[in-house]
Specification:
heterodimer, A: 218 residues, mainly alpha, B: 207 residues, alpha/beta, Rossmann fold, five-stranded parallel beta sheet, 5 helices
């Protein structure tokens, strides 16, 4: 499992691997928002939690379609599926590698981008915690979507349509937690919900993804 | 009596809802190789994928020890941005082995070890793909057209590797059209073609 994780991280930082791509995309989306809605600080502070979460979510989606597609194209998915390591473990490792190369940098960069959107000071801690809790769910749900669309040409488009609705609960509770913190209210309940969604996804979806890949490889 | 490494008992294989092969029975003993032959589209690849465990047989029984089978298909499964040694080291750690030097020297890849796999020729890539089999240390090799894009010298290296593998008590099932100079029985899949093809069974395509 560590071998797969190590390989995927190695591939991510090599040429064409897309490490930092999600981060750059997140940065650009967040920088574009003030241009779109105007520079009023109250407006920006009001929309900052939602904008940051939607930005992070879209950035996460960006590299998902390559999660299994490259392995499928060069034949290594066949070989991984016949290796002694269970396919479920391969998927855990690949989702973890995806999280380390996208979700973790997004979480760490979010406070800096929060400044750009005039996010109120009380909300930074909750922003980081909610993203840290929520982004693993984005990676695992995405891995499930990528597994469903693995053999398809132009599967990336279908993947977005399949996965974005599944991201909704994470987005609702994640952005709500940040919004409440920004308004000076307690954010524990929505944070718990985000953590709950993540744990649930981690427990169930890799198995569903493995089943989907097995069917797609037939 | 030696126990077979791989047993097929009246196995049937299906592809795209069409039954391609029926009643395939086979015992593969340690030290034995079988050459799978048949015209294009006769189900060689489907049979090998079934044996490798990528799809379940639609009938019959398939028996092999867990993790005994190493499969090599048309694609080599190499990552272009990793070097030859890194590619092999990944498969080694996945299969719980360490030695990649022996495998690299068997296919004279030592000079290429730090080259990125994306910069290799088709034949060199194929050699790395075949070296992966040595790295896995699995007793049963299931190979689909292993000699594609290999030159005569590399085919000889491959035949030597097979002979050594059989000498160590391994077994191999090879789909190929060229003569490898191995003492091996031929398994002609054309003999297992079903009497009447069930082309009308459209619902199976969705299973």
């Amino acid at each position: 499992m560590i071998a797969v994780l190590k390989r995927d991280l190695q591939l991510a930082i090599r040429a064409g691997g897309g490490f930092g791509l999600a981060l750059a995309f997140f940065l650009i989306v967040v920088v574009l928002i003030p241009f779109g809605v105007g520079p009023e600080r109250e407006v920006l502070a009001r929309i900052a939690p939602g904008a940051l979460w939607v930005g992070a979510l879209l950035a996460c989606l960006l590299s998902l379609d390559r999660l299994f597609a490259t392995d499928f194209e060069d034949g290594s998915l066949d070989l991984l599926a016949t290796a002694p390591l269970p396919l479920e473990a391969v998927i855990y490792a690949k989702a973890l590698a995806h999280w380390i190369s996208t979700g973790l940098p997004l979480t760490l960069a979010a406070p800096v981008l929060g400044i750009l959107l005039n996010l109120p000071g009380e909300a930074y801690m909750v922003l980081v915690v909610s993203l840290a809790f929520g982004t693993p769910a984005l990676s695992v749900i995405g891995a499930f979507g990528a597994a469903l669309t693995v053999g398809l040409k132009r599967g990336g488009l279908l993947l977005s349509i399949l996965v974005l609705p599944l991201y909704m609960p994470t987005l609702i509770f994640g952005a709500d937690a940040v919004g409440r913190a920004a308004a000076g209210q307690g954010a524990t309940t929505p944070l718990m919900f985000v953590a709950l969604i993540t744990l649930g996804s981690l427990a169930v979806l890799p198995f569903a993804a493995a089943a989907a890949i097995r069917v797609n490889l037939r | 009596m030696t126990t077979p490494l791989l047993t097929l008992d009246t196995v049937a294989c299906t592809r795209g809802g069409v039954v391609l092969l029926e009643n395939v029975s086979l015992n593969l003993l340690p030290g034995e190789a079988r050459i799978v032959q048949g015209p294009n589209g006769s189900g060689k690849t489907t049979l090998l994928r079934t044996i490798a465990g990528l799809q379940p047989p639609s009938a019959g029984k398939l028996q092999a020890e867990d993790g005994a089978i190493a499969y090599a298909a048309h694609a080599d499964g190499l990552k272009g941005t990793l070097t030859v040694a890194e590619n092999l080291a990944f498969w080694a750690s996945l299969f719980g082995t360490e030695d990649i030097e022996t495998a690299m020297s068997a296919y004279s890849l030592l000079d290429l070890r730090n080259r990125h796999a994306g910069a290799l020729s088709a034949g060199q890539k194929r050699r790395v793909g075949l070296a992966r089999l040595l790295v896995t240390a699995c007793p049963v090799w299931v190979l689909d057209e292993p000699t594609v894009s290999l030159d005569a010298a590399s085919v000889e290296l491959f035949a030597d590797a097979i002979r050594q593998h059989l000498g160590r008590g391994g077994a191999a099932l090879i789909a190929t059209h060229i003569d490898l100079g191995l003492k091996a029985q031929v398994l002609d899949v054309a003999a297992f073609r079903p009497a009447h093809r069930s082309d009308g069974a459209f619902d199976e395509a969705f299973l």
